[in-house]
């Protein structure tokens, strides 16, 4: 029996740490920033200071929340909103409605866009692939509007596509008024929506996601560096998008992958580009250091053997219906509690895949889970002659 499974099953009888010991243990945390401000973030390990006005860290595989601060607050998203524009374009590419080499016209309106620019020229035709790099690496508002107009006819019509797709993706706190993130009092997104969107970009478009890891791009003889400094500051950093306006402050949607783990982080409301890089690095490193993903059991793995009444076999295996992977603190073995709940004996007949019980998991820093346990095999009911000894035995036992 593996050590992991032994720990899991032993927890069904006795918690691996008493509540008193669990309270006395102080989890390791990163050094706090020099001048934390405002409400601390909440984490499974307790309060955690961050100077970000809004913050969220999730595990990309399990969707577990490691840290959140005002994560549902509707905030000015600045250029981080461009991720919604990019999702629309990637989706069109994947469906064959658009081609990377296809050229789109540059209108006067796109050319006149202020703020970050790719420096496209009015009246020219620019390939979709180049415009995408202009949006991702250079945060070009001109490139963003060129894409929006090129695929939808106008930016206003493109915004309608953004809104429809956001509802489809379950982004409940997002309202769009343009494709770029240019300031508008009615344009809002939450950190949670931005994290959901980033996760879908990573999962849905693996063929295009590497664009987010490009460090520089040259167009019209002008080379610009990617504003996402976490690509070089954080090992495994490979995306996604920075943003800044006077109202929003400095923000970033970032992701990093180490081994089989990927974290997604959203922070906003930071006072400077330097603070964005330093705080982003600190929070991501904390997430990788203090948490880990474990596989409790794999689909079909036998968790327990349960007796069967009047069956053609004495017992039936309880199995999980899918791989169960959870994000837990590094010291999860000392705090995790697991309970198997089922009624025994199980009356025959039993059908493979039938739910027979639940596995309940809890503990400090461990997400509360209630997972179905299924019959791992068919067990038929005995014939009349086979049932008589069992019935008689039941009467005699009573």
Which SSEs are present, and which pair or pack?
Elements (H helix, E strand, L loop, with lengths): L2 H8 L8 H6 L29 E6 L5 E5 L12 H13 L8 E3 L2 H5 L12 E3 H9 L4 H12 L2 H15 L21 H14 L11 E4 L2 E4 L4 H4 L3 E9 L3 E10 L2 E10 L2 H18 E7 L4 E8 L5 E6 L3 E6 L7 E6 L3 E2 L7 E8 L6 E7 L8 H14 L1
Parallel strand pairs: 11-15
Antiparallel strand pairs: 1-2, 1-9, 3-4, 5-6, 7-8, 8-9, 10-13, 11-12, 12-17, 14-16, 16-17
Helix pairs in contact: 5-6, 6-7
Short description:
With 398 residues, the protein is of the alpha+beta class. It contains eleven helices and 17 strands.
Describe this entry's structure for a reader.
The protein has 398 residues and is an alpha+beta fold. It folds into two domains: 3-18 and 298-397, Peptidoglycan synthesis regulatory factor (PBP3), Domain 2; 54-283, Beta-lactamase, CATH 3.40.710.10. Helix content is 30%, strand content 26%. The strands form five sheets. The protein has a six-stranded mixed β-sheet with strand order 14-16-17-12-11-15, with helices on one face. The chain has a five-stranded antiparallel β-sheet with strand order 2-1-9-8-7, sandwiched between helices. It has a two-stranded antiparallel sheet with strand order 3-4. It is elongated. 42% of the residues are buried.
């Amino acid at each position: 029996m593996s050590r992991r499974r032994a720990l899991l099953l032993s927890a069904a009888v006795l918690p691996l740490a008493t509540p008193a010991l669990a309270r006395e243990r102080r989890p390791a945390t990163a050094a706090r920033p020099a001048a934390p401000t405002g409400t601390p973030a909440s984490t499974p390990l307790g309060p955690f200071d961050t100077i970000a006005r809004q913050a969220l860290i999730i595990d990309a595989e399990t969707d577990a929340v490691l840290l959140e601060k005002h994560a549902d607050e509707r905030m000015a998203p600045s250029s981080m909103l461009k991720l919604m524009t990019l999702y629309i374009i990637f989706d069109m590419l994947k469906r064959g409605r658009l081609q990377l080499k296809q050229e789109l016209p540059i209108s006067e309106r796109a050319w006149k866009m202020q703020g970050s620019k790719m420096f496209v020229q009015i009246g020219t035709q620019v390939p979709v692939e180049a415009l995408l790099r202009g949006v991702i690496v250079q945060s070009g508002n001109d490139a963003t509007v060129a894409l929006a107009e090129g695929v939808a006819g106008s930016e206003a019509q493109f915004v309608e596509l953004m809104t429809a797709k956001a509802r489809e993706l379950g982004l409940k706190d997002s309202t769009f008024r343009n494709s770029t993130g240019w300031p508008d009092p009615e344009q809002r997104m939450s950190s949670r929506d931005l994290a959901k969107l980033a996760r879908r970009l990573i999962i849905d478009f693996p063929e295009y996601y590497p664009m987010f890891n490009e460090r520089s791009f040259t167009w019209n003889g002008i080379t610009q560096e990617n504003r996402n400094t976490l690509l070089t500051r954080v090992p495994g950093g490979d995306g996604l998008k920075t943003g800044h306006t006077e109202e929003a402050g400095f923000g970033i949607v970032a992701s990093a992958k180490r081994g089989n783990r990927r974290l997604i982080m959203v922070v906003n409301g930071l006072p400077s580009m330097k603070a964005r890089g330093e705080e982003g690095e600190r929070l991501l490193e904390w997430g990788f250091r203090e948490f880990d993903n474990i596989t409790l059991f794999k689909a079909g793995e036998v968790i327990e053997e349960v007796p069967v009444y009047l069956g053609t076999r004495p017992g039936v295996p309880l199995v999980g219906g899918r791989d169960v992977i959870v994000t837990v603190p590094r010291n999860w073995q000392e705090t995790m509690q697991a309970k198997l709940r089922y009624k025994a004996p199980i009356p025959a007949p039993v059908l493979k895949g039938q739910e027979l019980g639940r596995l309940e998991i809890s503990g400090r820093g461990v997400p509360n889970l209630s997972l179905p346990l299924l019959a791992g095999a068919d067990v038929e009911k005995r014939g009349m002659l086979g049932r008589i000894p069992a019935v008689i035995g039941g009467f005699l036992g009573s």
